[in-house]
Design brief:
single chain, alpha+beta, 13 strands, about 15% helix
């Protein structure tokens, strides 16, 4: 009499491994198709890179922006061709990207930079100015936040709302390049008639102005 062969049942370890693989595959598809349920904030920054077309960037600095979300992170990243400021924050669906501003640094220049204004509902405004300094003769940098007034004769005049000042020792460095990141919170714009792009002014070791650049690339982001 032949014995009936019993089919070996999968072990508990195999079943657990199969479930993990299925869950990982599902999570990967959700990440790629719906751009959500990200496990790490740097994945959201990678999404910003794809959207901006910057290519892979390296992190220069990461800081928190709890004024927007408790988990809100701001990343200053760079490569040879671009400087980018972008954000990420944690939700019940995982990490989400939180917009970005990329500055093209491929054209020859002394200073490349941009600005980013971030607001949430009725909360005060968070203001960033960032960029890269390519002139080795610059040892001090001033960022002028300006607005415009009109005289009785109809001539527009610029006025400084406030100024940031920093020296080379305080700049951020990555891959042999120098970067700056300024932050102001809260930014009260109620007293200014018009908002103008910030101006970066570079000085040499003798205190002589050798560069003045209007930082035109920027963006405003709103969170409800």
């Amino acid at each position: 009499m032949k014995k009936e062969k019993r089919q070996a049942l999968p072990s508990r370890r195999k079943r657990t491994l199969r479930r993990i693989l299925v869950a990982a595959a599902a999570l990967f598809l959700v990440n790629r198709i719906f751009l959500m349920s990200l496990l790490f904030p740097i994945q959201a920054i990678r999404q910003n890179e794809e959207r901006e077309g910057t290519g892979r960037t390296a992190v220069v600095r990461r800081e928190r922006a709890p004024e927007i979300h408790k988990s809100h992170l701001i990343y200053l990243t760079e490569n040879e061709n671009v400087t980018m400021l972008s954000g990420a924050y944690l939700t019940h669906l995982g990490w989400m990207n939180a917009f970005s501003v990329a500055v093209d640094c491929t054209e020859p220049g002394t200073i490349h930079g941009g600005w980013w204004i971030i607001t949430k509902e009725e909360a005060p405004t968070l203001f960033y100015v960032f960029g890269r300094i390519d002139d080795p003769n610059i040892v001090r940098l001033d960022i002028l936040a300006q607005y415009e007034i009109w005289t009785l004769s109809g001539i527009p005049l610029r006025r400084n709302a406030f100024t940031w000042s920093t020296s080379r020792e305080e700049w951020l460095e990555k891959d042999g390049r120098c970067y700056f990141l300024f932050r102001k919170y809260p930014l009260d714009e109620s007293g200014y008639s018009t908002r103008l792009p910030p101006v970066a002014v570079g000085y040499d070791a003798d205190g002589k102005e050798i560069a003045r650049v209007e930082l035109e690339q920027g963006s405003s982001s709103y969170f409800g």
